[in-house]
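Model it.
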Amino acid sequence: MGRNLYILAGSLILFAVISCGIAYTNIARQPGSPGDIALWRTMGLGFLVVGLVVALAGILSSLFEQAERRAEDARRASRKR
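Modeled.
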């Protein structure tokens, strides 16, 4: 599950970079472009925050899975003795 969360976090952070890139180029100032500059910056910041939270969830998920595996291995080793 941790790997899926890392992929999701990477995608969200990529969208954040693209949104901020659109805000700082002339694309957002063209007539007929969707939204204004503040909207693109807000979307970029939102994507970044959500991406970082998802990355933290992936890290914690991997950490707990590893701790659970090691505890199970320790129980098996103690039973064999």
